[in-house]
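Final report, closing paragraph on structural work. Over the funding period we assembled a curated collection of sequence-structure pairs, and we close with a single example.
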Amino acid sequence: MSIIYEALLDLHAEVVIKESIRKFREVNLYKEIDDALQNGDEDLFIKLTNELKTINESSA
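Its predicted structure, as stored:
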C-alpha cells in the first residue's frame, strides 16, 4: 500500500470519527434541550441551544 493511499485512509477515518462524535453530541443535545424545557430550566435551555448552534455552524 502506498504512503499517499495510507495517508488518505487515515484522513478519511479521522473525518468519519469526528462527524460521528459531532452527530452523537447533537442527538444528546436535543434530548437535554427537551429535558430542560420539561423542567422549565431556561438558563440550561439557552446554554444547550447555544452549544447546538455552535455545533451546527461548525459543520456547515
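Helices lie at 3-39, 42-59. The radius of gyration is 17 Å. We thank the funder for supporting this effort.
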